[in-house]
Specification:
The chain is an alpha/beta fold. It has one domain (2-218): Rossmann fold (3-Layer(aba) Sandwich). The protein is 29% helix and 26% strand. The protein has eight helices and twelve strands. Helix 6 links the parallel strand 4 (110-116) and strand 5 (136-147). The longest helix is centred in the first third of the chain and has 10 residues, at 17-26. The termini are far apart.
Length: 219
């Protein structure tokens, strides 16, 4: 089992075609709660550039565009299938993305970095977060599972998944300590999009999971 875990990635190709079809429908839906919550948090900062780690079909960019938030955007994702889906709606991003594992590749330096529902699926989350923090000048947004203790878990295939993948929880302390190393002050905000749902909080009927938005502000 340990050998298998080393090969796990946070690729969205973990999901089956039915789940991919849901993303196609979301492409035309507006007002995603988590995107708007994040935009409300960062709108008062002087941000000229932003990178989106795990950008999927550019859902965060979509909400930026709806708000007419004129900021230089760049997206990263490990799965070309979702990038191609997003480009059907946002062809202007044709040269504003990169496909690759952000644990390993060099990231653009930007004023702000956003990583949503991706860190918990990474094989080396600490390395990924270090890479993001090292390339962020002002503000970092991390949206992930947080709690008093860390839980390292593997989600096994179900009706929506085609293979196992990481679904870890991080402790408040370890996230705060990691941000401190890069001189970021940390604020934790409960995520509005997921935490109104009791069903979403249950993981394998054992762990009660909460998603938080971490706002890191560089000193």
């Amino acid at each position: 089992m340990k050998k298998k875990n080393k090969n796990l990635t946070h690729s969205s190709s973990t999901y089956d075609e039915k789940t991919f079809d849901l993303y196609k429908k979301r492409l035309n839906n507006s007002n995603l709660i988590w995107c708007n919550q994040v935009l409300d948090l960062v709108k008062n900062y002087n941000i000229n550039s932003i990178k989106d780690i795990g950008c999927n079909y550019f859902q965060f960019y979509k909400e930026m565009k709806l708000r007419k938030w004129n900021v230089n955007y760049f997206g990263y994702d490990i799965d070309k299938k979702f990038i191609n889906l997003g480009l059907t709606k946002f062809p202007e991003l044709n040269k504003k993305y990169k496909i690759g594992n952000c644990e390993k590749i060099k990231l653009n330096k930007t004023d702000c970095s956003v990583i949503s529902a991706t860190l918990e699926h990474a094989t080396q989350p600490k390395k990924l977060l270090d890479n993001i923090l090292n390339s962020t000048k002002k503000i970092v947004i991390v949206r992930t599972y947080l709690g008093k203790k860390s839980h390292k878990l593997i989600s096994m295939p179900n009706l929506r998944q085609i293979r196992p993948y990481n679904v870890n929880q991080f402790s408040f302390n370890e996230i705060e300590d990691q941000l401190k190393k890069y001189k970021f002050n940390t604020i934790f905000i409960l995520d509005k999009a997921t935490n109104n749902s009791e069903k979403f909080k249950l993981f394998n009927n054992k762990f009660k999971r909460f998603i938080y938005i971490v706002l890191g502000i560089r000193k």
